[in-house]
From TrEMBL:
This is NAD(P)/FAD-dependent oxidoreductase. Residues 46-405 form the FAD dependent oxidoreductase domain. PANTHER family: FAD DEPENDENT OXIDOREDUCTASE DOMAIN-CONTAINING PROTEIN, SARCOSINE DEHYDROGENASE-RELATED. It comes from Paraburkholderia phenoliruptrix. One of its GO terms (molecular function) is oxidoreductase activity. InterPro entries: FAD-dep_OxRdtase, FAD/NAD-bd_sf.
Amino acid sequence: MLAPAVHNPSQRPQPDSLWRAMAARSAHKLAPVSMGAPLARDLSVDVAVIGAGYSGLAAAYALQKRGVDCAVFDANPVGWGASGRNGGVVSSKFRLSFPLIDKLHGLDTAKRMHRLAHEGVRVVESFVDEFGLERAHFERTGSLRCAHTERAFAAIRAEADWVRTQLGDASMSVQSREEVTRETGSAGFVGGVLSADAGTILPLEYVCGIARGLTARGVPIYEATPIVEIARSLRGASGAVLRTPGGILHAKQVIVATNAYSDLTSATAAYQRELVPFRSAMIATARLPAELDARLMVQRRSYTETRRMMKWFRKVDGRMLFGGRDAFGKEGQATGFVALRRAMVALFPDLADVQIEYKWSGYVGMTFNALPHVGRSDDITTFCLGYNGAGVAMASLLGQHAAALALGDTPELALLGQQGLRPVPFHSLRAPGVRVVAAWYQFLDAVGA
Ligand SMILES: Cc1cc2nc3c(=O)[nH]c(=O)nc-3n(C[C@H](O)[C@H](O)[C@H](O)COP(=O)(O)OP(=O)(O)OC[C@H]3O[C@@H](n4cnc5c(N)ncnc54)[C@H](O)[C@@H]3O)c2cc1C
């Protein structure tokens, strides 16, 4: 029998982000973020969900809907991981383009993947409706992909064309250089493609709103409760015994929803080996002067660009929010922020004198095949992870599919389903490997290749 551990080794406060500041300003303050006390007794549930981000909460939602006794456990506050600190871009795509999926796996698979991608956006809409998450400000304003070279523009135009003719999806439309310049306020792009089935959300409000809704429906959420050890039940009983600092937990099934933070404890660290964690950093300016506010990003969409080391931006709370991947930095390090500011000013010279008021970062889980992975790692454990930086919608969907798998169902997963864990080859070399690839990408971006 496992003995409870004596202390919580890892609990940290919610990262100091614009989202935290906005939540603190709103009527409910940060109360919703600390809704669950730590587990302080032994407990038995049918399904234990590890991780209180979108994946874990979506799994708990699906379980609760089916009347399954479940509880959620997080080492930190709800949304402390990527779910509470991301850019809030709600997108309907994967890192692999649909034409490439067709080339590699055939048209039928591309169609199934396309359906899953758009279903993710529907799930966000339905959470917002069902839990009354007005404060999450979901706006289906679309996402504009801005081309940094003529070659990149031709490629994204061809992709939009393919999606329209082969998948019958007319939600993508091409914008000229003039249109992109007028809409963004940046002269740095040669054209763009607008995806209408996308939008923006306040990510911390969204994750906390779902958690509040689940708590109201009787799903216990234990914060400050790391799972520090997982063992199989003894004496032939099926199920798992999970150790936390405050109590022992018995569960028939376990869902691991810890994504790029899986190595917080050794109990879930094996799942980190499915991933190459990549640091993603964000900066938010001070509120923009009225003239700039009226000129930049007037449609309130999200914007991405075609560079390999992609930057993305949106306007929120009257500020420019600018983000990008930074393979070289560690969480909290200053280097990535300086580079981000430089990139922002290069695209928006008007922002040169506007102060940066918030900067924060987190880890995204990249996978070897550039797609999320959902599956069973053994007969009592299900996992979902690896959203490759696009998890707001996808984790909201795949958490629910993980719950279905845990209950023995076979949800439609197209290329996302996976039997067992498949660690990234040469995982121990991932950090230097990521740096080499990122440096190469930066070089290609710099020479406009
Ligand atoms: C800076 C940044 C910007 C991003 N921007 C976007 C964007 O604009 N659009 C988009 O779609 N996606 C974006 N993403 C990706 C997106 O945020 C993630 O894909 C998504 O939030 C993953 O959700 P999750 O629930 O799987 O994981 P997380 O939200 O990371 O949750 C994992 C949780 O597991 C907990 N945990 C880990 N180990 C244990 C353990 N042993 N015991 C208990 N708890 C444990 C952690 O404390 C954490 O709270 C971004 C990510 C980052 C970091």
